[in-house]
Automatic annotation (TrEMBL):
InterPro entries: DinB/YfiT-like, DUF1572. Gene3D superfamilies: dinb family like domain. Pfam families: DUF1572. It comes from Pseudogracilibacillus auburnensis. This is Uncharacterized protein DUF1572.
Length: 178
């Protein structure tokens, strides 16, 4: 077993899991929900999606050969809520994730210790992956939190329901015993 290849396999699954939390949240939201924000200092889910996608496309396009902060990126514009529909938002979401996951899937063990730059700052590929894991999980967590607040009693849980931990554990134990 090669440690680098094992790491890449694990991290690909972790990122897919993070994306899945966002997908399951977005599927529960209405057209109005995606634009809701608590106050002017807050971001709507639509804005968070634009920012994530903008980051992914900038960081992961020509990943090994160009700086991760591309000249085509307008980061400030990512924080303007000008998305016209939930479907447009989903298209933006998927474009970012596809750019990122396609690049991640192409990486090989020997790439992990190569140097890349983000805003002229050197990072190993390994560092860049970990940096983005923290960033993407942070923002998807915001999406889930906002979605949960908006849906209230209509929220379909993405994990073990409250009060069901022991039942869940017993199901898992039974599954692994058979």
């Amino acid at each position: 077993m090669n440690l680098g290849n094992e790491y890449l396999k694990i991290v690909q699954e972790r990122f897919k899991s993070v994306k899945n939390l966002g997908d399951k949240t977005i599927s529960q939201l209405s057209e109005e929900d995606i634009h809701w924000k608590l106050n002017e200092a807050s971001n709507s889910i639509a804005i968070i999606v634009k920012h994530l996608s903008g980051n992914m496309i900038s960081r992961w396009s020509d990943f090994l050969t160009t700086d991760g902060e591309k000249s085509f990126r307008n980061r400030d514009q990512e924080f303007e809520d000008d998305i016209s529909s939930k479907q447009e938002m989903i298209t933006i979401w998927e474009k970012g994730w596809n750019t990122f996951l396609d690049t991640l899937n192409e990486l090989e063990n020997q790439d992990l210790l190569k140097n890349i730059t983000i805003r002229s700052e050197k990072h190993t590929v390994l560092e860049a992956i970990e940096r983005q894991m923290a960033h993407y999980a942070y923002h998807v967590g915001q999406i889930v939190y906002i979605g949960k607040q908006l849906k209230d009693e209509n929220w379909e849980t993405l994990s073990i329901p409250k009060g069901k931990s022991e039942e869940y554990l017993q199901q898992k134990l039974k599954k692994h015993q058979s």
